[in-house]
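Cont'd.
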Amino acid sequence: MIGVLAAAAVILGAHPLGNMSVNHYDGLSVFLDRIEDTAIIDSAEIPTLQQRQGASGPPDAYAARACGELAGAVRGQVGEQPLAWRVTSAAFAYRPGAAGLPTSRLTCRLAAPLRVERPVTLTFANPYRGGAVGWREITASGSGVRLSASSVPTRSVSGELHAYPADLLSSPLDVRQARFTVEPGSGGLGAPARVPGADVLTRYTALLADRLNSLVGSDRLTVPLGLLALLVSLVLGAVHAALPGHGKTVMAAYLAGRDGGPRDAFAVAATVTLTHTAGVIVLGVLLSVSASIAGETVLGWLGVISGLLIAAIGTALLRSAVVRPASQHGAADGHAHGHGPAQGHGHGHGHFASSGRGVVGLGVAGGLVPSPSALVVLLGAMALGRTVFGIVTVVCYGLGMALTLLAAALTVRRLANLTLTNRLNRLRPYTATITAALVLLVGIGITARALASLL
Amino acid sequence: MRRVRKALPLLGCVLLGCALLAWFTPGAWLRRDEPPPTPPRRTAYEPAAFIDQAQDHLRRYPGDTRTWADLGGAYLEQARRTGDPAFYGKAEGALRRSLPHIDAMIGMGALANARHDFALALRWGTRARSAAPYRWPLYAVLTDAYVELGQYAKADQVLRHLLDGRPDLVSFTRAAHLFHLRGQTARAREALERARDIASDPADYAFCVWQLGELAWSDGDPRAALSAYTEALAADPSHTPSLAAKARAEAALGRLADARRDYADAVTRSPSFVVEYGELLQHLGDRDGARRLYAVFRAQVRLQAANGVSDSLAVGRYEADHGSPAVAVRELRAEWGRRRSVDVADALGWALHQAGRHTEAARYAAYADRLGGRNALFAYHRGEISRALGRTSAAHAELTRALSINPYFSPDGPPKARAELGGAA
């Protein structure tokens, strides 16, 4: 914050981590009788120049000397015993860098004897040339031994210092120590290789949401741009509905379980869209009108309400399923192949569900919790004075959600018709009970989760 | 049998229920896919921790421009603290994503200042001021830009605004800098002490103590300076400017082995100090060592040029003393066209003197002194220029003044000044 005054010292770089970075990588491999370390030092232009002046003589001699120093600096311990490293090979090479200056790469292979007969804890640290800035990475893997409780990944995210990840949301790695347990055996991995990040689906939807935001916020909103934004929000909504949570999966199960016609499915879709749009708009208006409302709390309570609603529907379904015992359905076993829409409520789920209130209730529950990305888009559009466009976008988002739910429900129904008919027909009398219990349980689960986030 | 059949669905029901509960209950396998969007907020303490949180948040909500702007600011802070220029590119990327958010404009200004593009910083600062005049950090950007551009009256004006709105670390350290430029050492010290007393984290504390050390140093008290630098390093061992300054003070006090060790450490962390270290080695007779360090400086300049960045002031100063004075004059004249600060005036005057154009040099040297600052190096330069012009008494007065302000102002300047004063006497 007070940095600008002190900034006289700072300078830009072309090397991914600056022209004066000294980047370290240690790849540890553990065998039954030894541990090996592939230590690589990738020096940018300035440190290479400094080394070159210090290092007269052929590169091989320099490599041998530098690796000797490195082997002396590296610290490894098995249990309480220090490891005795020795250099098995050393190589040094220049590579062309920026402004016609070379960069350099020192590769040392070190080995130390080790006996893995029972589980032992290994610690490793490389403080060699620790003062300079740069990327620092350690990996550990085993061959013939099993690694567990490892603080480092098995694979290098920088391709052993050949390609440094440079996206805006990752900091240069600064791992200087490793700790893991080895025991005889095979398999077992360290922590999965990761530049801190989210899973694939979240990352791509995040990208899409970002694109949508920039579309809505673009300087001039032309017709094609607007249509593109609507399409993107449709896709986002569809993906959002496919993510777990919010009880949407319940509805697919519910629709599959009942024999209501596609009309019911469309009713759910419409309800979800309407509820979600209304929810987002109300919350968006509330948030932009009053600064004292915390979005988090509102969302939490909406989650609770949604969960309770689902639980209530589950209870009602269960009651009606129990009140109308299965005996009534005994006769229905005969027309296993006939239950198209024309058959109507041949198997019946009791009065509650057939009244349609249950369907609408589930739709409300599914759409009640606004999706944050839709909320962000709406707020962004409102801030730019494009409220109507924002609302249309949110409607599209809800439509996308509804489409996914519809598709899921119809697919499950089709599958159910194909497979369930023959083998699980005997279960049919109980589907009502099963569905009801499922809905109830999920409702309780969602309520508990939402409450937990509030406390 | 019938019973068993009847129980089967119930059993399935229970199993399914258990599975679902295991999924959905808090802390279970399936966590909340979307925690509500409460972006993390920046704290002055520990930018690294904030960066982690913000990166995590932005991976889920990449549309949150405010957090992008905060993250850009944190990257910039991290670049300053670690000296790792990788963070500059990241800062720019993050800030550009969040434009036209007001904090992003201010961040772009601070970034331009850090990259020595003060005119650009001024443009960003002005834009930010017209967009949101009560966003205080923008006045810090404007103050820095005006100071470096040599528009000191405007800098004062903006800084007063900042001090009225936000009497804090940011404004006190800048006020101290302006006091120092005007030779008001006591007031500068007072402002820095106030800043130090309210510094809340080790890095800020180290910065203030280092500045106090610089004040003591420029006032000719290397002992007090050394203890300040040591204190700064105790608070923040990664503060490289303090390390280099400590080496300089040690050299002044005759502790040459310590000085060499600390300088060697400092130049592996940042190449900004290679010329200073080279001058010390040259003074001690280690010509090879000095030559190597100068080679590093020239390589650094080439790399910067390849990146489209140039620090003409540093290049000009180096060329005037160790390279070609003609190149120095060319670089510094160009810099003078861009900004008219006292530092540029002094460097241009000295380069002109080295190139043999003493009359013109004297004009710039006088300009460098126009704020009335107590700068021993400026006084020495002015004295040398006067001597070259044959103005013996003026030269005598200036050289005496230089030695009285700080008898350790450079490795080989003070002995020369003393010799000349002795010769004149």
